[in-house]
Amino acid sequence: MIKNESFGLQNKTKSVVLTLDDFRKGATAPTEVTIGTTPTISAYHFDDVNDLMTVHVVLPNDWNRSYDLTIDLIWSLSVIETDTDTLDLNIDYVIIDKESTGKGIGRTSTNLTPSLTVTTAKGLAAGDIYVTSITIDKDDASNPFTSNSIGIAAEISLANTTGVAEIDFISGCINYTAKP
């Protein structure tokens, strides 16, 4: 993981960059592939329903828990898509709290399926890049941020495909607001 930061007038937005090595393949695993010609890069190829990967991140100490988190996932389309091809991603996450009973990995997860349909009818071709941005609500009923919150664990799976939809996961980042 690499930290990037940008400075605004009032708040600092920082990112924790997630490489492919930060993700673990699940029981139904996406296939490891290389894409591109020069350079070639590693990716996880999602083409079957239930292809699954997980990630867990401890956020830096300057994370301001008063603001939502944003997760950006970077994908490359693997095949030429048509207007009727879609990929529906399923994301379950938990906020991890330290020193709090029932607030770790085993707590009830929050599911973000409805907001994560990757629509490929945007004129994108095979090899084009697509970014999925996910907002993690600081006040979520099951996973609110508290003063004991130290990070996030997430499971990302392919819930549905329509047509010949296929996509390669490249990398991502977690964007957070830093304490002043």
Task: Give a nutshell description of this structure.
This protein has a single domain, classed as Jelly Rolls.
Write out key terms for the chains shown.
Jelly Rolls, mainly beta, globular, 180 residues
Could you outline the blueprint of secondary structure elements for this entry?
Elements: E1 2-7, E2 12-18, E3 24-25, E4 31-35, E5 41-46, E6 52-58, E7 69-77, E8 86-97, E9 110-111, E10 117-119, E11 129-136, E12 149-162, E13 167-178
Antiparallel strand pairs: 1-2, 2-13, 3-6, 4-5, 5-13, 6-12, 7-11, 7-13, 8-9, 8-10, 8-12
The name of the CATH superfamily reads Galactose-binding domain-like
Distance between the termini: 23 Å
**Total strand count, please?**
13
* SS summary, helix count: 0
Broad CATH class: Mainly Beta
Cα-atom Rg, whole angstroms? 17 Å
| Biggest sheet statistics | 7 strands, antiparallel
Q: What is the element string, with H for helices and E for strands?
A: EEEEEEEEEEEEE
- Mean pLDDT, nearest integer? 83
Tell me about this structure:
With 180 residues, the chain is mostly beta strands. The chain has one domain: Jelly Rolls, CATH 2.60.120.260. It has no helices and 13 strands. It has strands at residues 2-7, 12-18, 24-25, 31-35, 41-46, 52-58, 69-77, 86-97, 110-111, 117-119, 129-136, 149-162, 167-178. Strands 1, 2, 4, 5, 7, 11 and 13 form a 7-stranded antiparallel sheet that branches. The two termini are 23 Å apart. 27% of the residues are buried.
